[in-house]
Amino acid sequence: MSPKIYIAGKLFDKADAKISVYDHGLLYGDGVFEGMRIYEGRVFRVRQHLERLYDSAKSIRLEIPLTFEQMLDAVRSTVDANQKKNGYIRLVVTRGAGYLGLDPRKASNPQVIIIVDDVTIYPQELYENGLEIVSVSTIRNHPNALNPRIKSLNYLNNILAQMECVQAGCVEALMLNHKGEVAECTADNIFVVHKGVVKTPPTDAGILEGITRGAVIELGRKANITVLETALTRFDVYSADECFLTGTAAEVVPVVKVDGRSIGSGKPGPVTKQLRERFHQFARSPEAER
Hints:
alpha+beta, 6-stranded antiparallel beta sheet, 26% strand
């Protein structure tokens, strides 16, 4: 079945889903988005995702043409129209079509686009055996230039880092911030485990405050695992007993090598395995939709 794409209140077949080439989302990356997962017909932490979407839009003075509840209904109805029990949602809000020029006042009629489809980030063997990542020279956007907590349509910062890791033969890149501290990867948040304590960079390190990241922190603390949000350097990563990444599409994936250095035993560790299993169970439970 061809995916049904929501655009401005109507559903279109994939081949017919179109917006104007004058849309400032296309011309200038002027817009925001969210990626969400569907588990057993339910959208994982949908309200948290939409709250982040509206916060991102507010921070760039983009007025979303739907109320929060209308957006919630639009997401759920698009999932239902696609009969998707397990899958991925890409929700995009653009500044809208207008005239050439950076001035946002030259655009009007913001567009809401909802895509429901499948997504696979990493092959299954990497979840079982772990993946290798490499730190790259492209740093995370400076918070005073473009705050990484804004989930904007301009992902060139991440793409440039991704190009470096592909060149190095890896599938994910570790990005540092302007202070030389560990920030996050191109599409995932990073965690390390040292002597049973789980650590992850705080939001002021210049990271996106991931929804899956937040869920893993909660699940870890409920399991009586100490989880700290604290500044990290590459030393903390290299000397870790375990390392893993979290993200909406990636879920929880172990890392066994960074910059050619084996992490711990060189195999996915027990804390990573425990948190991954706890996340899988939680994500598929009814309470995870809230």
